[in-house]
Amino acid sequence: MQNQSLVTRHSSLQKGFTLAEIIIVVMILAFISTISFRTYYDLREKQDFNNALNQIVELIKTARNDAITSQAVYLETAPETPIIPSKGYGVFINLTPTETEAHLTLFANTSVQGNFADQFDEEDSILEKLSLPASITFDKLFKLSPTELRGIPDTGTDIGNQAVILFRPPVAETFLSNNGDPTIPENLIDTLSIQLFPKSQATRKKVITIDKIGGIPAIHL
Asked: Residues 6 or more apart from 106 whose CB is under 8 A from it?
């Protein structure tokens, strides 16, 4: 009788999991995987967003530093002769670039096609391009007057899809415009506000402002 009881007990331990138990375990694992993936995605998007903010600021600072140091550039038409572009160094901002364009373009204003000194065109010397990740919405460009609040989302006058930040050597005198005719006062800007946010979190808007007095970009949380 005792041996039979041991056999029965041993046999019951070999039955394994029931279907209901397996389903519960699978559901728990799926739930944990979903939470982990979402956490990873959010962290990755946050990292991409912060990196983009810093890259934009650094690109603008590079243009300003190039003006202060009178950085020489080389034209394709004269690759052996360095020149210092007297019209300045700048960053061209484009909210809606084509496949061959970038959201931001660092350039030396070397065009000889008679364009306005405060504009960007394809004849200028392109030094660097920056395209933002698909996870980021490059939202709006605002024109702010000295009396308006700065760094507040959706504050100011929408200026369209393009803007130019230009620094003229040797003191990095700053010019801000919507890349239109600078002889028209409405095209000139006192303070430029660049607004962007992660695509999945539109409420996390951040603003980069550049003032024509000083020209140093600042990120506003």
From this structure: 59, 62, 63, 89, 90, 91, 126, 127, 128, 129, 130
Q: Which residues contact 48 (CB under 8 A, 6 or more apart)?
A: 133, 135, 136, 198
Three-state SS string over 8-56 comes to HHHHHHCCCCCHHHHHHHHHHHHHHHHHHHHHHHHHHHHHHHHHHHHHH
Q: Which two tokens stand for residue 150?
A: 């700065």
Q: Given its phi and psi angles, is residue 187 left (phi above 0), alpha (psi -120 to 50 degrees) or beta?
A: alpha
End-to-end CA distance of the chain: 78
Task: For the beta carbon of residue 115, count every other beta carbon within 10 angstroms.
Answer: 15
The SS3 assignment for 197 reads strand
Q: Judge whether 174 and 165 are in contact, CB under 8 Å.
A: yes
What sign does the CA torsion over 183, 186, 187, 192 have? positive
**Predicted TM-score of the model (pTM):** 0.78
pLDDT tens, position by position, for the chain (221 residues)? 445 544 455 555 455 678 777 788 788 877 776 766 666 767 888 888 999 999 999 999 999 999 999 988 888 777 788 888 888 999 999 999 988 889 999 999 887 554 456 688 888 889 999 999 888 998 899 887 655 655 566 678 899 999 999 999 989 899 999 988 877 888 888 889 999 999 888 888 888 999 888 788 887 75
Instruction: Tell me if 159 sits within 8 A of 153, measured CB to CB.
Output: no
For the chain, the structural domain boundaries read 36-220
